[in-house]
Design goal:
2 domains; flat
Length: 133
């Protein structure tokens, strides 16, 4: 392969990157043009439209009551608020309990494993495994 061929292959390999870049630039400029046109139309037409055709105003955010709530619901709200305020402590407790429960589960699984006697190469049992009472 000559040097001219290598240069040709390098140019061909760069084409997908150029196409991607140029198509992204074109898409961005088209988006900007449509946004500008929509804004212009909205400003121009909105004074002529009747009130019934205009979109409704946005709803106000819901009001959260700060009044104390008793019972289980109040305890749940207090716990949720505490967890949100103390995220680091909550994450540490969850990690500690999760790791501990996983290790406890693995240890219990190891004890309940059946014992199998090792076998010789001819298929007979090499040792006796029994349960002593």
């Amino acid at each position: 392969m000559s040097g001219d061929d290598q240069h040709f292959l390098d140019v061909i390999s760069a084409i997908p990157n150029d196409v991607k870049r140029y198509s992204g630039d074109v898409a961005a400029s088209v988006d900007r043009a449509f946004d500008h046109a929509a804004l212009y139309l909205r400003k121009t037409i909105s004074p002529w439209l009747p009130e019934s055709m205009l979109p409704p105003p946005p709803k106000p955010p819901p009001v959260v009551s700060t009044a104390p709530v008793g019972g289980v619901r109040g305890l749940m709200l207090y716990a949720q608020r505490w967890v949100l305020d103390n995220r680091a402590i909550t994450a540490a407790v969850v990690a500690f309990l999760g790791t501990g429960s996983f290790l406890f589960y693995q240890q219990g699984k190891a004890y309940s494993k059946k014992r199998r006697a090792k076998r010789n190469s001819n298929g007979s049992r090499r040792e006796v495994v029994g349960e002593w009472v």
